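Practice problem: peptidylprolyl isomerase
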Amino acid sequence: AAGSRCLLLLLGVLGAPALGDPGPLEDVVIDRYYIPKICLREAQMGDFIRYHYNGTFKDGKKFDSSYDRGATVAGVVGVGRLITGMDRGLQGMCVNERRHLIVPPHLGYGSIGVAGLIPPDATLYFDVVMLDIWNKNDKLQITTLSKPERCNRTVENSDFVRYHYNGTLLDGTPFDSSYSKGSTYDTYVGTGWLIKGMDQGLLGMCAGEKRSIIIPPFLAYGEKGYGTVIPPQASLVFSVLLVDFHNPKDGVFLEHLEVPESCKRRAVTGDFVRYHYNGTLMDGTLFDSSYSRNQTYNTYIGKGYIIPGMDQGLQGVCMGEHRRVIIPPHLAYGENGAGDKIPGSAVLIFDVHVIDFHNPEDPVEIETVFRPEGCNVTTRDRDFVRYHYNCSLLDGTRLFSSHDYEKPQEVTLGANKVIEGLNSGLLDMCAGERRVLIVPPHLGHGESGARGVPGSAVLRFEVELISMEEGVPEGYLFIWHGEPPASLYEEMDLNKDGEIPAEEFSTFIKTQVAEGKGRLMPSSDPEKVIADMFRNQDRNQDGKITPEELKLKSDEDQEKIHEEL
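Answer key — structure tokens:
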């Protein structure tokens, strides 16, 4: 019987041209009516596949449809679990390929059919679209799409990552995207919070790297799928952009970009630092900059006034140093972030330029650049000095210079006419001596600064003492070198008319100075000093001094003490 059946089949095929009827089909007829440009993968024997189909008879009557059931069909191809015609018709099919299959009865349900559904000896017509192909031996497929040039660290297990992603099924159907939510997906890697394939697929990534990760279902949501968006046994394709990552054990990471050659002093806890900075996220997004405000950020370090990472990151800086400080979120703004510029769990990068720093305990720093030989007379409190100076900030910004004026600066030391730091820096100097003074702000212009001087700035003065004159004690305009004349009024009243007008007074005082009996408060305008003296003595301001009005300052002070007692 077997022999004759073979013969029939052969006859059918051989006799076809003569009879004009093609006779029964020998094999499946395959019409590949849509082939995608890129074939991601072809179905091989033993592969697990997911597909949609419509099944009809020759007359177009539908007998079955996965679309009507609202679920794709999943199964293994080529191992006899499907009707033979289907097993053969799906071989070599690409993802997203569409085929028309014509399955003859002997490769379908044969002469028995399926009761109430498929009659005996029915030829079946299928319209199939292939959606997914995988194999239990599959590995994760990782493709690097782009990578930053600099990458000094990659993701490891237990790191915390922030990434953007688009998720699609293998046929390109999107199921989820972080971009549509407007924020990154943030999670730990390798601790079981992610599907296995993602846990593995993120390892070794750099911040800023883009990857495509194809995950077979057994490393994704497997037989259960996920909600309505991920069918059972679906391969997943993630396009991932790693925004940043850190490890909870991370400390602050420093890069010393530019350290000045001479660094006499490094900042420590309790120092007050003025610095410029640009603050960026790991992907380069600028979130803040002191340059845009055109003023430095000024703060104590190590005291908790700034985020802990910055408190640590500024330790040991030199004046003028450029330093990059990379701060993990647990030493910055944590899970909540800050404002709308710093996302939760973000790593922050500060590029810092230190302008200056000081300590509230700092004295004036004095460096003698030149001291003439045989220097035995030096400046003291109340002396009148003439000096030249250049004043600048520590970054070299020039502020003021006496050389911009015709003559040197003049001042009485200790008369509160110049900042304290400059006053003390001018003491104990010889004429001709040159010094460099470093003046901290508490001995300079303080927190508020002054015109042209930023708040809390450390100042650098180059000073040269031109000349000095011995001064008089505070409150005096003239002092006697010895005892004053016993009958002072009589001696002062040169024409003996019982009153002393301004001219007479002036002549008398100038004579005392010329004869070395006394000295005026030093000034660039001695006439004014004498006029002030006269005005002090002419108590009723009538232009002349009477015997009752004339009093020595020492006597006046005695009277005052007496009154107070």
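Discussion: The chain is about 15% helix and 30% strand. Students who identified this feature from the tokens alone can consider the problem solved.
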